[in-house]
Design a protein that fits this description.
Helix content: 25-40%
CATH architecture of the largest domain: Alpha-Beta Complex
Bound molecules: zinc ion
Number of strands: 18
Number of helices: 11
CATH topology of the largest domain: Quinone Oxidoreductase, Chain A, domain 1
Strand content: 25-35%
Largest sheet: 7 strands, mixed
CATH superfamily of the largest domain: Medium-chain alcohol dehydrogenases, catalytic domain
Number of domains: 2
Length: about 350
């Protein structure tokens, strides 16, 4: 089988040939027919996360070995089953839920695999979907997507799930409450699309780009705000009558994190999602004085994946623009993502 691999961090991926793996135990061999190219692939490809002030988190220091096959949004056809695999049939096509833990520890057993200390995530820890085949450790990670085009369906296990899980964390709010999302890119906009299916709160969308704000209004945002504009915080305070009950930072830059915190009402909660990087300055007295909290949200659980797919199948989730390219062209997709030239998602087709 072929795999497009990181041979050296930051250098173009290279095609390598390997024997096609044979599934053992409960494993399932999936022939990949589509795999989304994600912004977070750029971090893994570069081998580091910018923690700000010159501080860098290096994946090599955390035990990542090269060569490595990226691709955590694979979808494909079941090609072979291990002797103990059950629940899926050869020839059927599924989304691969990639956020898998060790499957043995206590947190994995109770379904919190994202909290596992020994993650086995497909495409970030275990070789992923920029390849002809992936091994999935258990059929329970294969998700039905009947009625959804496959090039679109593969993106739900990452961008759709990230938006859904973040929205699920806003808390128990009512129709008079406000949630402000910051960043109206692919993930941020999809959150606006299905927000009404998750929370009755009114959604305010902040973005510095007028085109994206217009897109957000078109899909049902209660109000939009230019967060780079002077007086933006005051405007949010006026609209909300004292601040948002929850803010979701889909960008993750120092200025977006601070903007969100400044727009929270007392008792409010900020959810950090974006991985842009660097350090934010948050005045510590705000925490007790505003009784505010900040939490992080990373992709979503297997249970949330099933909930999201129900919304998708019921037409609650607006499709995002998809552009298909051959597997060999994945480097061009990574370059275009780096340059910010991708609208929606590029999907590679092995
Ligand atoms: Zn992703
Ligand atoms: Zn575990």
């Amino acid at each position: 089988m072929r795999a497009m691999q990181i041979i050296e961090f930051g250098k173009p991926l290279e095609m390598r040939e390997y024997p096609t793996p044979e599934p053992t135990g409960k494993e399932v061999l999936v022939r990949v027919t589509a795999c989304g190219v994600c912004h977070s692939d750029l971090h893994i490809w570069s081998g580091e996360f910018d923690l700000g002030d010159g501080e860098v988190l290096r994946l090599a220091d955390r035990g990542m070995k090269l060569p490595f096959t990226l691709g955590h949004e694979p979808l494909g056809t079941v090609e072979a089953l291990g002797p103990d695999a059950e629940g899926v049939e050869i020839g059927n096509s599924y989304i691969v839920y990639p956020w898998i833990g060790c499957r043995e520890c206590e947190v994995c057993q109770r379904g919190d695999e994202l909290l596992c200390l020994n993650p086995q995530v497909i495409g970030t820890r275990i070789n992923g979907g920029y390849a002809d085949y992936v091994i999935v450790p258990d059929a329970k990670y294969l998700i039905d997507y009947t009625g959804v085009p496959q090039n679109l369906a593969c993106t739900y296990a990452c961008s759709g799930l990230t938006a859904y899980s973040a929205l699920c964390k806003v808390g128990d709010l009512g129709p008079d409450d406000y949630v402000m999302t910051i960043g109206a890119g692919g993930v941020g906009l999809s959150a606006v699309h299905f927000a009404s299916a998750v929370t009755p709160a009114k959604i305010i969308v902040a973005d510095i780009d007028g085109t994206k704000r217009a897109a957000a209004r078109q899909i049902g945002a209660y109000a939009t705000i230019d967060n780079a504009e002077d007086g933006a915080v005051r405007k949010v305070m006026e609209i909300t009558g004292g601040g948002a009950a929850a803010t979701i930072d889909f960008v993750g830059r120092p200025e977006t994190a601070r903007f969100g915190v400044d727009c929270l009402r007392k008792g409010g909660r900020q959810i950090q999602v974006g991985l842009f990087g660097e350090k934010a300055q948050i005045p510590l007295p705000f925490f007790p004085l505003k009784m505010m909290s900040m939490i992080g949200s990373y992709v979503g659980s297997l249970a949330e994946m099933h909930e999201l797919m129900e919304l998708v199948k019921n037409g609650k989730v607006q499709p995002i623009p998809i552009e298909a390219r051959p597997l060999e062209a994945v480097n061009s997709a990574l370059d275009d993502l780096t340059a910010g030239h991708v609208l929606g998602r590029v999907v590679v087709k092995p």
